[in-house]
Amino acid sequence: MIKKIEIKKLKTLPATAICGNDISSSCLYVSALAIIYSGQYAWLALLIVAAVLYLFRKIYGEVVGALPLNGGAYNALLNTTSKSTASLAAALTLLSYMATAVISASEAMHYVRSLAEGFPVIPATIILLAFFMGITIIGIGESSKVAVVIFITHIASLIILSLVIIAFVAGNGLDVFWSNYRAPVEGGILTALFFGFSAAMLGISGFESSANFVEEQAEGVFPKTLKNMWIVVGVFNPLMAFLALAVMKIPDVQGHEEALLSYMGFIAGGKWLSVLISVDAAMVLSGAVLTSFVGVGGLIERMTLDRVLPQFLLKKNNRGASYRIMISFFLLCVSILFFTQGRLKELAGVYTISFLSVMILFAVGNILLKIKRAKLPRPERASWIAVLVAAFAVFIALIGNAVMNPPYLIVFLEYFIPTILIVIIMLKRTVLLKITLSIIRYVFEPIRKYVMKTNRKIVRLINKINSQEFVFFTKGDDVETLNKVMLYIQKNEQTNRLKIVTILKEGEKVPPQFLKDLDVLNREYPKIEIEFIKEKGEFGPEKVNELSEKYNIPINFMFIGSPGDRFPYKIEELGGVRLII
Fold first, then answer.
1. Tens digits of per-residue pLDDT, 135-157?
2. What's the 3-state SS for 393-449?
3. Residues of the chain with pLDDT under 50
4. Which fold has domain 467-579?
5. 568 contacts 548 by C-beta, under 8 angstroms
6. 226, 210 in Cβ contact below 8 A?
7. pLDDT tens digits, residue range 492-537?
């Protein structure tokens, strides 16, 4: 009897926490990016990002509501277009998760090193990745408990930071903010907003994660996770940028880009708040690693079920977790970490382009769902205007990032091309196997024919050699003597045919015992064809010549035992008959 594994569905808080840790961790870096590129208008650029994300709430809600299966953009395109197109989205999503996991884990350990000088970042990053691999292998329920603790701690830390900075500004005034506001904007407001918006779009990375494990969520939870993530992004990202502009000069932001919130805490509250934010940053970035493992698990399992990836990945443990997927993803992340030697800027390009491309493809999936699956029931619908505006906005952000960081495209292709090649090989493996078989046949068929022809010739030659008959002249030898003859022939001659000839004078008969011994010989040597021949006459040179001509056997292939003293002929008179015993 097959034991059915029951997996408890996730409720709103744990489901929100799993994907929310990724998207909420963006405030640790996206405020600095937005300020660097759009200056005093960073908070406005981040509000525009929140508006775009609001449109994507409906887009994701419609697609996943109509097709509530793991896989995100892959699932959307799989059910509206070809598997090849869907696999493109899957490859981009995999790259995004891979980059997220490695960058988040490494950045988390960098924050720890800021608290403990000399902390080994790369070994600790590997340990952190291994820890969350283990958590997800134990089961998604246990994973969510860890995610909830991290998520609540992070939100609480952001609230504390905000309140302390607000109190600091209330006591010290808005002089810094107005100084920043009056600063000249290079290239004008629109240019600043364009680049600031493009950079700030990274602040919604992780929004797609909930769609990749929707099957593990209880009914009605998915749209709530989208709403909660939007609230977090819409409130904290613009707020952090605004508060940063209220306590720091714009030029100072670039010098503290990697730990902006921690430095803001130090300005407003002192070292205790800076340490609190650093610890929180390490935790929530670690939570983003968990998000990657959970999201990639749902995606790869769906792809494997669709035979886009090898079936051995589907093996589950007794908790219902696809442990082989988690182990494979862990090994991939570690290999990428060693390949880049911790240089995270190389992965940033992969992360940026992959994530934004996935968002565009999800919008495309929504459009195709409207056109091709119009009758499919869905709990909510996104308007055509909303879908087109959202897709265009993400496309603008993709262009902006390419303009700001041209090398990102090259690095992205270095990772994307091998990934998509693996997927294409899996999708077209039967075609590729047929082509391989045709090539093998084309190359090796002439060789095979030559080998077969040569084989037949060799076999014929062997048979011809073995068909050569030999003669042993006997005069009633016993079985021991006959056995010595057979052993000699086996060892020294290449034949499977032997004539045992006895020459009888008039009235002479073969001893009965000899015939019995001959029968034993036949059973003992079944591979040698033994023919017993009785000849009338007298043994001598004339008889040897006569039998040689009669059976077409050369005299040197005729054997006798050692003759006694009474033998009337010299051995040389027999024409080459050989003595073998």
1. 888 876 566 788 899 999 999 99
2. HHHHHHHHHHHHCCHHHHHHHHHHHHHHHHHHHHHCHHHHHHHHHHHHHHHHHHHHH
3. 1-5
4. Rossmann fold (3.40.50)
5. no
6. yes
7. 888 888 999 998 888 788 888 888 888 888 888 988 898 999 888 8
Give the separation between CA 137 and CA 307, rounded to whole angstroms. 22
Give the three-class secondary structure for 473.
Answer: strand
For the chain, domain boundaries: 12-427, 432-464, 467-579
Six-digit token pair at 405? 């960081």
Please report the sign of the dihedral spanned by the C-alpha atoms of residue 456, residue 459, residue 463, residue 464.
positive
Would you tell me which CATH number, out of the four given (3.30.230.10, 2.60.40.10, 3.40.50.2300, 1.20.1740.10), belongs to the domain 12-427?
A: 1.20.1740.10
Please check whether residue 266 is in contact with residue 273, taking contact to mean a CB–CB distance below 8 angstroms.
yes
Rounded-to-10 torsion of CA 214, 215, 216, 220 = 60
Give 291-311 as a DSSP string: HHHHHHHHHHHHHHHTTSS-G
* Chain position carrying tokens 């076999």: 459
C-alpha–C-alpha distance, residues 453 and 65, integer Å? 66
The fraction of the chain above a pLDDT of 70, given in percent, is 97
Listed residue (305, 348, 333) closest to 199, CA to CA:
348
What SS3 state is found at 187?
Answer: coil
What is the DSSP-derived secondary structure letter of residue 315? -
Residue 431 burial by CB count (10 A; 0-12/13-18/19+): exposed, middle or buried?
exposed
CB contact at 8 A, 189 and 181: no
